Amino acid sequence: VRLPINVTPKLYEVELEALTDLKDFTFKGKLAVHVSVKESSVKTITCHSADIKIDAKDVEYKPAAGGSLPATAVTFDEKQERVSFEFANALPKGEGVLEVKSYLGELNNKMKGFYRSKYAVDGKEKYMAVTQFEATDAR
Question: Radius of gyration over alpha carbons of the chain, in Å?
């Protein structure tokens, strides 16, 4: 599924919290997406996303010229595997960074994205977090 072209990503910085306990099959992370806003009327940034929970209080847009714009809402389209970050005012045209200070993800058992895989050691069932980072599943 194609994303709107009014905001284009340039660079992704993803930070995942170390996983030492795979009992609840979740992980925490942070994200900074360096983007280029192509139009002066943009109030929403849409990204691919699956099995992730994000709260609007943890999201802001930082224009290259300075300042910060907090997100007013985060909406998910699970069927299209998208998340949209909404802002009260139009984002300044040009370069900036979308920052997600915290998110919670699910280590699913669907063998796509960031998922869990089961294995056995001395007859004991264990899990590991794995990814194939295939094109649209690397999100």
Answer: 17
